[in-house]
Amino acid sequence: MFDIYRNDKRGLLVLTTGSAVPVLSSAHKWRKSRKRVLKVSDEIRSAVQEQGYYLRNLRD
Asked: Of 6, 30, 43, 56, which sees the most CB atoms within 10 A?
């Protein structure tokens, strides 16, 4: 399962359930989505396995 976090700047952070928010992205205020997600895309799944998280920012 995966936990989904969002911020005000349309950012998306995906972590495995129970993982801590990474230090590099902890400067932003992340809000946890109330629902846990069972399925994610292959791209997100592989990024979480390699890095421990998936981060998407639509605004820079």
From this structure: 30
pLDDT tens per residue across span 5-60: 888 888 889 998 888 887 766 666 888 888 778 889 999 999 999 999 999 887 65
In this structure, what token pair is assigned to residue 9? 């700047």
CA–CA distance from 36 to each of 3, 4, 16, 24, 58 (Å)?
5, 7, 10, 23, 22
Kindly state the tokens that stand for 42.
């292959």
Structure token digits, residue 54: 């998936």
Look at the pTM and tell me if it is higher than 0.70: yes
Rounded distance between C-alpha atoms, residue 14 and residue 33, angstroms: 10
Between CA 47 and CA 60 the distance in angstroms is: 20
